[in-house]
Amino acid sequence: MKKILILTAMLSVVIPFSLSAHCGSCGVGDETKAHTHEKTTSIDIVDTAIAAGDFNTLAAAIEAAGLIETLKGDGPFTVFAPTDVAFAKLPEGTIDSLLKPENKSKLAAILAYHVVPAKVLAKDVKTMKAPTVNGAEISITVKYGKVMVNEATVVKTDIIASNGVIHVIDSVLLPPM
User: Fold this and answer.
1) Fewer CB atoms inside 10 A, N or C side of the chain?
2) How many other CB atoms are found less than 10 A from the CB of residue 177?
C-alpha cells in the first residue's frame, strides 16, 4: 500500500486534478451536476483515478487484484469508481480482508463488477442493464433526476481518460453471489 500512496503523492504533483475543481472550458464545478463534454487526455483510467486523490483505496485494490495492466489497456472502459469515503462505508475489516493475497480472486471479481467494457458518457445514460467485465450485469436507472448504479448514486460523471471514462459513485458495488 505504501507504493500506491507514494505514487499518488508523486502524480498529484505532476498531474494536478481535482474532482471538485471548476472545469476551465465550461465552468462546471458542482460535482452533483452532469459534466458531459469530452476533453482530450493522454492519461489512462488508472493514472486519472490516482491523480484525483479521492481513490486511494480503489488504487490499492486495483494493485492487489493485479488489474493495473488491464485498466491501463486500450479499453474503452467505463469505470464506476467508489471513492475512499464509499469504501469506508463497508463493514469494518472488509477492505483489509479483501486486500490479502488469498482473497485476490474475490477482490478482482468485485472490482471487475465496477467496469463496463465500453465508453458510456452521461449523455448516453438511460435505464438499462449493462454487462460488466465480471460477467454479471449492473442495473443503471435514472430516479428523480439522479443516476443510480444498482443502489449506488453517481455523484460525478464523465471524468475522461485516454482509454475510457470514470463516473464517481458513493458506494461499493457488490456482485451477486
Assistant:
1) C
2) 6
Q: What is the pLDDT of residue 106?
A: 95
Closest CA to 168 of 150, 158, 177, 155: 155
* List of residues 6+ apart from 20 with CB closer than 8 A: 29, 31
Phi, psi of 128 (to 5 degrees): -170, 170
At residue 77 the predicted structure's pLDDT band, cuts being 50, 70 and 90, is very high
As a whole number of angstroms, the distance between CA 122 and CA 110 comes to 23
CATH topology (fold) of 2-18+35-169? FAS1 domain (2.30.180)
The rounded mean pLDDT for the chain is 80
* Burial letters 20-53, b for 16+ CB under 10 A, else e: eeeeeeeebeeeeebbeeeeeeebbbbbbbbbbb
> Which residue in 123, 114, 116 sits closest to 35, CA to CA?
123
List pLDDT tens digits, range 89-148: 999 999 999 999 999 999 999 999 999 999 999 998 889 999 999 999 999 998 888 999
CB 140 within 8 A of CB 97: no
Domain boundaries in the chain?
A: 2-18+35-169
**How far from the centroid of its chain's Cα atoms is residue 37's Cα?**
18
